[in-house]
Amino acid sequence: MTDRYHFHWNDLHSEQFRHLKLLLYWPFFGILFYMAEQVFLEREYHVMWCPLDDAIPFCEWFLIPYLFWFVYLAGMHLYLMIAEVPAFRRMMYFIILTYSAALVAFFVSPSCQELRPAEFPRDSVLTRFLEEFYAFDTNTNVCPSLHCVGSMAVVFGAWDAESLRRWRVPFTAMGLLICVSTVFVKQHSILDVFWAMVVCAAAYGAVYLLPEKGRSKAWKERTIT
Fold first, then answer.
1. The pTM is what?
2. CA 144, CA 103: separation in Å to the nearest integer?
């Protein structure tokens, strides 16, 4: 009968588990985000708005994909850290770059939105929940949208993972739906979504495209020699 394996903190230095140290970024981010939200309050916020925001109607049904984001992001973390470690590392590098860029924006150019409806057009379970959610989640530090950045991290992680090849389209559709939901529940301006995509495009090139280009170049050089 074999003994059960017991995890020790020293195991984080081993080849098998050291990728888990990347998760330490999340408490680091949480502390700085809390400071941006709760400590540095006496600041001038830039209001995010464009005419398209007024043309987008409020729809409480989009609260469902908006909240699913938490499962969507955490689930991909859990799956990749167990099943596909290299893809997990690349996804975490993407998150570290994009979320750090967002933190810089929150401190250097703090933003807010004033799009939330003064009263809901309908009374339902979803609108009552959203009313409580509005009270919990502030309308500050919205650009770039972390919901959109996190969703694209999952999409790129799904496309990077070989074991999820058949699930790429559903993951992409869900990621885009979550991004769309942010403007329909009036949590973000379309400008927040746009700048999130700009940040994601830059990070995608740095994390996924440039290293791949470097590997291809190295392979060609070895082949020639």
1. 0.88
2. 9
Instruction: Give me the torsion for CA of 197, 80, 171, 95, rounded to 10°.
Output: -10
Q: Where are the beta strands (DSSP E) in 61-121?
A: 111-112
Q: Let me know if 225 is exposed, middle or buried by CB neighbors in 10 A (0-12, 13-18, 19+).
A: exposed
Q: How many CB atoms lie within 10 A of CB 61?
A: 12
Percentages helix, strand, coil for the chain, rounded to the nearest 5? 75, 0, 25
Which tens digits make up the pLDDT trace of 24-48? Answer: 999 999 999 999 988 766 678 999 9
Give the list of residues 6+ apart from residue 159 with CB closer than 8 angstroms, or none. 168, 171, 172
Question: Cα 116 vs. chain centroid, distance in angstroms?
Answer: 22
Domain ranges of the chain: 58-116+139-210
